[in-house]
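Researcher: Please predict.
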Amino acid sequence: MRHTSILISILILILHSYDIKAQNGKLYDVEGLLLIEHIYENGMYKPLWHTKRGKVYPFGNTLFDNTTRLFSSEQAYEDFLKYNHSDTSLTFKGQYVVCFLISKEGKIMEDRIIRKTTGCEECDTLVLKTIKKIRKIKAYSFDNKTNTVSKITIPFGKVWE
C-alpha cells in the first residue's frame, strides 16, 4: 500500500511537470523567427514579444482576447481596408494574419506576419503597403498600464462585392 501511494505521488509529480512544460508555448512568424513566447512561472503566465532586433517586451493580454483593438469596430476596419487596401483587381483569394505589439500609449511598436497565403507575389507587396498605413494609426482601445498585442486578418480577392 505504501509503495502504491509513493508511485501515485511520483506519477502526479511527473504529470504536473509535463503539464507546466506543455503550457510554455511559442509562436513564430512566417520567416521562422520567434515572435511570442508564453512562459509559465510560479503559477502565472508571462507572455513575451521578441522583436526582430532581439529586444524582448512583456505584454499583458493574449492574441485571442479583444481588449486591444486597432479599430473601433469591424465596420471601421472594413472601411479602412476599402479605402487603403487596393486588392480589387486581383482574382486571387487568400488572407494574411498580422500581429501588432501596441505600447501603453496606443502606438504600434512592431508588426509581424504570422500566416499568409502563398502563390501571390503581388499580394505580398500590397499587404506590406497596407501594414505601413496601419502603423500610422493609434490603437482604438489598449491598456495604458502595459504593452498589449492585437491580431488582424487582411483579406485578398474581391472581398468587397
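Model: The first helix runs from residue 2 to 23.
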